[in-house]
């Protein structure tokens, strides 16, 4: 608690000092001193007096932190007042209005005041920019860095026919890799490899499959004819390895050996700054703590990260593909709904709507909706799309077999409602910017109202409308709260396939990984943030290019 | 000129007399009407959205209010509206629906956010509008826009990864819990800062130049002009910006869900973890919240309160502009 009091007192002391600088400068000028001297005196009095008073008060009244804070502040301000009064008068005559040298001093004091505050204002801007820089750095810091990688089986310890393999994996032939698999993994794991990498059966079906004959399990894949009738769980290591070798090419086998037998694992990781500055200490720590591990640079964002499926258990091995696909599918639906409806509403309000009560209500309502928190839209989506329209959003009405309405479609509709007001407001501005002369010329030639809008107003306003829409979409891509409510899963091993599929999304995954206890998930979250920010940056650049092209055409 | 000549010309240039005359009256165009009707429906969608929000939130909240339960002594109670304000415990699944812990945490975090966003936002706005050269302004404003465009989930990551360790090293790890309202509130302040800055800057720039020049003409310094002339003239816009900022802070979810922790805590200590209203909704609805349970109904009740608060603030902000705006012609 003492530390809180101390930090608070120092903070208040700084404010007192600032006040001292401003007020004492003016008092000093009035009394015939240079204002700069007054400002210095004020600064030098404020902070020390406040801190000393706090120390004295907390010694006198222990256990009364609030009293010492308030007392210290009061003491600081009182000291400043006393200082202003105590300054001896130096100017000979005190007229009602200062003149001559006195005037110069007053003006100097006012300018000093001005420049002090000006630097405070400037500081605010610097702070805002610094925060953005720190935010980006915090993300980058976690995205790259040293990792300690440990193998479950050292590559040198792999055996073929009881002999160690002393060559790198890249030089081994397919037959040798098959031998390695058969010799280094138990038969149960090899069977899992077949199910995971060859047949890609759903996890839930595995128990039922294992007793079936090979011809059933590997239906549609290659298998030796003599094994067709053998039960899948009666095969021995060599037989299962041969199944793998038949269905995977040499590189696939190598990947399997590397991922599943050698199994590199990140056992510890360090952020970029530490990795750069304390490399030796990290190396020493790893040698001490994980003698078998290797220190290695790692970029957590990589092509593999983008294209591999999610792995909810292994942060160092997980990918992002289902989340990326999910986000894109959801956004596609959002655009398909929000763009036509939003632009339609904007056209109605700008081109057709008279000044009636109803239209005013619609207009006010749109600006109110723009201020409704996104989580409220999530609640709405949960009640209406997920639950109320379950038959449609789960696709059961169309023969899809999703269990409930927590689907891509519900999420897309929900986000569409969320960005609708933004799209309308932006499109209205773009349509309003179309000169009236254009419309009148079109009417003058006998075009109807819709012909005028379709052939003249909309093409003219389109770049503006698109810019606004892109900005609204980039807001939708980053939205997390509504997706939580609508029930996006936080991990999915399979990709979402269409509008009626359960889904996950990029921001949801970031949320999930940020809150998981394992530190390596924070690295993965940072990498996902890099992907998200890159996506948003691309979208915004497109919007800016559109805007620039548009304004050039107008001028 | 003679009238006969005109008649002659009309006869040669004009339409052949046997064609029917061109109808200049209003024509019925069914296509146009259909299109107009469709466009009206698009506009009406937004009204429908508002109605849906009110109906959905209201109906489910009533379900919570009307639920009955039996206490230890066997007496039957039903949750009343007054229980929301009279009691101070929030455990909806146990029929304890005092909103105070959630409301306190929400107000506390918003207050902390405002402590960051208001001074620095207004300071930035004054600098950009009154001091900065056009070149600086054109460089800084896009940076602020980027800051405003960062998704809130990223701010949540930032709060947990940067602000919390910072607070812990300043105040000691024993005082500051890993999940705490102060860290989330401060980061929320940083998130809202660009909003305050840009809305206030708009209000300041809208003050006509002539006012500033009159002030300089009377011998004021730039600071005196800013503080005594420009700020009072723009005060309605700035107050409106502040109100919108508060409304944004109350409704912000992800920073709270990530960095402020997940427990109902009726306390004013900012270094403890606490559920805000939004944080509560987000953290209990992740995954498999069963329909028609008390927890399920409770998110609608909290949502209704949230909706009413933010709506009230937004309306208030527009009223401030409409009522106190100085119009210079």
Description of the molecule:
- The complex is a heterodimer of chains A (555) and B (329).
- Chain A is mainly alpha-helical and 555 residues long.
- Chain A has helices spanning 2-30, 35-60, 65-86, 100-143, 174-184, 187-199, 206-210, 214-217, 237-247, 250-262, 272-277, 279-289, 303-307, 321-352, 357-370, 374-388, 390-393, 408-432, 436-444, 449-478, 481-486, 506-515, 519-554; strands at 144-151, 159-160, 163-164, 264-269, 294-299.
- Chain A has three domains: 2-94, no CATH class; 155-301, no CATH class; 329-504 and 511-554, MetI-like fold (Orthogonal Bundle), CATH 1.10.3720.
- Chain A has 23 helices and five strands.
- In chain A, helix 14 runs parallel beside helix 18.
- Chain A is flat and about 115 Å long.
- Chain B has 329 residues and is mainly alpha-helical.
- Chain B folds into two domains: 35-86, no CATH class; 99-324, MetI-like fold (Orthogonal Bundle).
- Chain B has 13 helices and four strands.
- In chain B, helix 10 packs antiparallel against helix 13 (294-324).
- The longest helix of chain B is centred in the N-terminal third of the chain and has 37 residues, at 30-66.
- Chain B is flat.
- The mean pLDDT of chain B is 87.
- Classes of the chains: A mainly alpha (555), B mainly alpha (329).
- Chains A and B meet through helix 1, helix 4, helix 14, helix 15 and helix 16 of A and helix 2, helix 4, helix 5, helix 6 and helix 7 of B.
The portion of residues forming beta strands of chain B comes to under 5%
CATH class of the largest domain in chain A: Mainly Alpha
Radius of gyration of chain A using CA atoms only: 35 Å
- Beta percentage of chain A is under 5%
Number of helices of chain A: 23
The CATH homology group name of the largest domain in chain B: MetI-like
**Silhouette of chain A:** flat
> Would you state the CATH class of the largest domain in chain B?
Mainly Alpha
Number of strands of chain B: 4
According to CATH, what is the topology of the largest domain in chain B? MetI-like fold
Largest interface comes to: A-B, 89 and 93 residues
Spatial order of the strands in the main sheet of chain A?
A: 4-1-5
């Amino acid at each position: 608690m003492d530390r809180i009091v101390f930090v608070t007192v120092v903070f208040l002391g700084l404010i007192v000092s600032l006040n001292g600088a401003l007020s004492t400068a003016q008092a000093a000028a009035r009394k015939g001193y240079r204002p700069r001297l007054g400002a210095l005196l004020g600064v030098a009095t404020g902070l020390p007096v406040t801190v000393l008073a706090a120390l004295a008060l907390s010694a006198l009244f222990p256990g009364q932190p609030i009293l010492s804070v308030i007392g210290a502040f009061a003491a600081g301000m009182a000291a400043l007042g006393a200082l202003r009064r105590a300054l001896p008068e130096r100017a000979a005559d005190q007229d009602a209005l200062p003149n001559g040298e006195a005037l110069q001093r007053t003006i100097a004091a006012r300018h000093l005041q001005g420049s002090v505050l000006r630097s405070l204002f400037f500081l605010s801007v610097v702070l805002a920019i610094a925060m953005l820089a720190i935010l980006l750095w915090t993300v980058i810091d976690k995205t790259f860095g040293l990792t300690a990688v440990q193998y479950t089986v050292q590559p040198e310890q792999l055996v073929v026919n009881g002999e160690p393999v002393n060559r790198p994996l890249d030089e081994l032939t397919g037959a040798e890799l098959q031998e390695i698999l058969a010799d280094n993994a138990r038969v149960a794991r090899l069977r899992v490899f077949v199910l995971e990498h060859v047949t890609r059966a759903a996890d839930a079906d595995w128990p039922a499959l294992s007793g079936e004959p090979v011809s059933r399990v590997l239906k549609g894949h290659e298998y030796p004819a003599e094994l067709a009738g053998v039960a899948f769980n009666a095969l021995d290591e060599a037989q299962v390895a041969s199944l793998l070798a038949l269905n995977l090419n040499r590189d696939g086998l190598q990947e399997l050996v590397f991922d599943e037998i050698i199994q590199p694992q990140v056992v510890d990781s360090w952020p970029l700054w530490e990795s750069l500055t304390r490399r030796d200490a990290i190396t020493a720590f790893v040698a001490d703590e994980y003698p078998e591990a290797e220190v290695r640079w790692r970029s957590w964002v990589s092509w593999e990260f983008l294209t591999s499926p999610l792995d909810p258990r292994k942060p160092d091995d997980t990918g992002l593909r289902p989340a990326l696909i999910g986000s894109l599918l959801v956004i596609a639906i959002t655009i398909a709904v929000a763009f036509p409806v939003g632009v339609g509403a904007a056209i109605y309000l700008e081109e057709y709507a008279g000044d009636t009560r109803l239209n005013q209500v619609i207009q006010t309502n749109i600006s109110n909706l723009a201020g409704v928190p996104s989580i409220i839209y999530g609640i709405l989506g949960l009640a209406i799309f997920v639950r109320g329209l379950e038959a449609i959003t789960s696709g059961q009405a169309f023969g899809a077999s999703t269990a409930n309405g927590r689907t891509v479609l519900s999420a897309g509709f929900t986000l569409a409602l969320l960005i609708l007001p933004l799209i309308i407001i932006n499109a209205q501005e773009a349509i309003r910017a179309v000169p009236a002369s254009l419309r009148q010329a079109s009417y003058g030639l006998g075009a109807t109202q819709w012909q005028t809008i379709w052939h003249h107003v909309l093409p003219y306003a389109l770049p503006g409308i698109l810019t606004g829409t892109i900005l609204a979409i980039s807001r939708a891509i980053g939205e997390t709260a509504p997706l939580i409510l609508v029930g996006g899963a936080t991990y999915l091993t399979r990709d979402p396939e269409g509008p009626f599929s359960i889904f996950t999304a990029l921001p949801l995954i970031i949320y999930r990984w940020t809150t998981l206890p394992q530190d390596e998930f924070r690295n993965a979250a940072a990498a996902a943030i890099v992907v998200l920010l890159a996506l948003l940056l691309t979208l915004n650049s497109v919007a800016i290019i559109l805007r620039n092209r548009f304004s050039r055409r107008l001028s | 000129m003679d009238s006969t000549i005109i008649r002659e010309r009309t006869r040669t240039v004009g339409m052949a007399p046997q064609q029917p005359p061109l109808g200049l009256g209003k024509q019925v165009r069914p296509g146009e009407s259909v299109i107009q009707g469709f466009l009206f429906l698009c506009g009406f969608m937004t009204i429908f959205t508002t109605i849906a929000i009110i109906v959905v939130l209201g109906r489910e909240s009533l379900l919570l209010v009307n639920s009955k339960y039996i206490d230890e002594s066997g007496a039957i109670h039903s949750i009343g509206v007054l229980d929301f304000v009279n009691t101070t415990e929030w455990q909806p699944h146990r029929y304890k629906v005092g909103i105070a812990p959630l409301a306190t945490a929400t107000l506390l975090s918003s207050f902390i956010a405002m402590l960051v966003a208001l001074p620095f936002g207004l300071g930035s706005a004054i600098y950009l509008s009154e001091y900065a050269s056009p070149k600086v302004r054109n460089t800084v404003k896009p940076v602020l826009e980027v800051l405003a465009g960062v998704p809130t989930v990223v701010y949540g990551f930032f709060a947990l990864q940067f602000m919390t360790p910072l607070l812990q090293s300043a105040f000691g790890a024993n005082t500051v819990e890993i999940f705490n309202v102060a860290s989330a509130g401060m980061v929320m302040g940083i998130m809202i800062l660009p909003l305050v800055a840009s809305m206030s800057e708009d209000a300041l720039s809208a003050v006509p130049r002539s006012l500033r020049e009159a002030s300089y003409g009377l011998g004021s310094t730039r600071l005196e002009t800013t503080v005594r002339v420009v700020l009072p003239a723009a005060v309605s816009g700035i107050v409106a910006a502040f109100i919108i900022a508060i409304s944004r802070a109350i409704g912000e979810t992800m920073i709270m869900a990530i960095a402020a922790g997940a427990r109902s805590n009726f306390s004013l200590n900012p270094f403890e973890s606490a559920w805000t209203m939004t944080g509560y909704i987000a953290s209990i609805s992740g995954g498999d919240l069963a329909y028609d349970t008390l927890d399920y109904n409770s998110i609608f009740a909290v949502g209704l309160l949230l909706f009413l608060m933010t709506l009230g603030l937004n309306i208030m902000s527009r009223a401030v502009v409409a009522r106190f705006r100085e119009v210079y012609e």
